[in-house]
Automatic annotation (TrEMBL):
Residues 180-202, 266-301, 314-345 are annotated as: Disordered. InterPro entries: Methyltranfer_dom, METTL25. Residues 185-194, 268-296, 329-345 have a biased composition (Polar residues). PANTHER family: CGI-41 METHYLTRANSFERASE, METHYLTRANSFERASE DOMAIN-CONTAINING PROTEIN. Residues 135-424 form the Methyltransferase domain. It holds the Pfam family Methyltransf_32. This is Methyltransferase domain-containing protein. Residues 319-328 have a biased composition (Basic and acidic residues).
Amino acid sequence: MRPEKSLPYSDEFKSADDYVEQLLRYVASTPVFQVLCGGVHIMDFYTSDPGLFYSVVPEDWQVFLLDRAPMELLDFLLRDDVDTPREEGRVPPPASLIQYVRDVRRFSLQRNILSRVATEKTKLPRKITMGMNIKKIHEVTQFSAYVDRLADAVSEDAPSTPITHLVDVGSGQNYLGRALASKSKAPQDSQNSSKDGRRGLRRGVVAVESKGHNIAGAKGLDMMTGVMAAPARPMRNKKLYQQMLSEKNGGAKQTEKARNRIARSWAAENTQNGDSESTAQDTELSQTPEKQQKPPSTIVADMRSRNEIAAEAYAQMQQKKDSQKEQDGQATEKTSANASATDSDNLIQYVEGRLENGDLSHVLSQVQPLRQDDDQDSDLPSSFLTVSIHSCGNLSHYGLRALELNPDVRAVAIVGCCYNLLTERLGPPTYKVPGMRPRPTLQPVNGRVMREEERRDPEGFPMSARFATYSPSEGPSEKGIRFNITARMMACQAPANWTEADSESFFTRHFYRAILQRIFLDRGVLQRVRLEGQADDEEGAAVSPIIIGSLRKACYASLSAYVRGAVAKIAAQGNGNGAASSDENAAVNAAVAEKMASLTDEDLEDYNTRYGNAQRRRELSAVWSLMAFSAGVVESAIVADRWQYLREQQAKGLVRDCWVESVFSYDQSPRNLVVVGIRGEKVE
């Protein structure tokens, strides 16, 4: 189960520890990397002259970068052999840039999926993939098979406490949990046996989700796909119900036809309950209206919702089924048509709640022991494997810390995502890059103001003590590894998957946004901000951003359409749209509406002429490409930090083994690195 390497590092490194040591030194003491990974922002690109490109890109790189079209530059950064001779007549790459490309490539963790994972013959039934797109099908298919094998391996190592439940943190629509539940074989399946002949156990799925509407939607999909049995829906006669209410409220008396309908309904109910004598009597009464008796008082309007009635009916059905099993001494024989539903009807349990740390005791305490049909397994203690696909931000940290904080959690397997949502354990970076003045770290003027205690969150990045306390022996640097939100957001990019059309699309969006920031500055909507004591010039100054969000597709047709659409959206947002206070947000909206009102199409055309030529656009695309390429090291550092955290638990004896490997194809799902940890305590 375990890969040969505990981290998928380049073969240039001797070991995982050697890789981590050199990675820390590079991240903490390389100025160019620090500039491109958090030192610049695309919105500041045109707020100074001659432009950000000339102040952040090394001078000997500039001519080469401007000589390469966007896709040519991406090929050079990601795919080309940088040691081969260049074509004649083109500007050759400088030696320092070649070395930088080599360094970023070797410090970026290898993302190719291992053959033993890629060649697994797994395919989910079509009904289980209901609601998934192609990307999600690939992820769920690959990861459900991986988790299944991991659970089997952990269970084989400790047969007395096998994995009985899979806890999916941040389950969403529970696509993964549904696939895992469908893989839990029926007890009579001869293939579900371990090597020593012991029959394999069915595993429950605990889906932990903070949003109730996601849980409701997931339960609906569970029933539609047959993973869980659908509750019986009671049949009600709406017209008869309305007539009964009318009579109760003093309305018109029931007609003879209505009385006959009531009697027939009562007769049908008694037939379902097996009361044939009462049925015959009521049927006879229904044919003689003059002797008809009033229906029993138990027939009353049920004012509960359909879901509540259905849930009660389903519970009664299950109770009756269990009672019948006890009387018969054996389980009722099931037909193949509904085997999927009846075999898995108790495999998925939903727990609604928001995790604030890795302590899952409040979740695990709600888990019911999974009933096994074999008596020898009926008293097995619950044992958990915590999993997640693309758990956002700190949720990945909570899943990994569950191994440390919950004794019943035997293993974890977490695929992280959305690094921009991570909080900062050490606070924002304040490193001083040689050749550049320190620039203030700014919050959007119409965004949420970050509380100071959230800027130093003990649950945030980095997790490991090694990353949190690292300090290079040479060069100026602060203690610990830090990445600001810009660097972490760029780590979510996948430049190797960019096509020419994709590149042109988002480069155009960034180009429009950078020009709009310059317009805001020129028209007094925003002001330059400097650190205290700095000179009153453009160098070292920054311009606070304004959050715009998404715009309609038509707004990206031209610069004029973009600016008009963005201004209209900001001006119409109203007060308190994610701001620290409604007054502050109202002031921003009013300033945008007032100071942008006189902007003419001629003004916009002038901005387009000044900044929209091919060279200025290529300056922007070159820097953005370098930022996305360099951020591969940021993601690698975040993943290595999580692995290092488990290594530190291993030194304490809590973790027996831990590793990182790719579980998805990068071209289909770029966030494809799973962090695995297995509890090391000896189980008697």
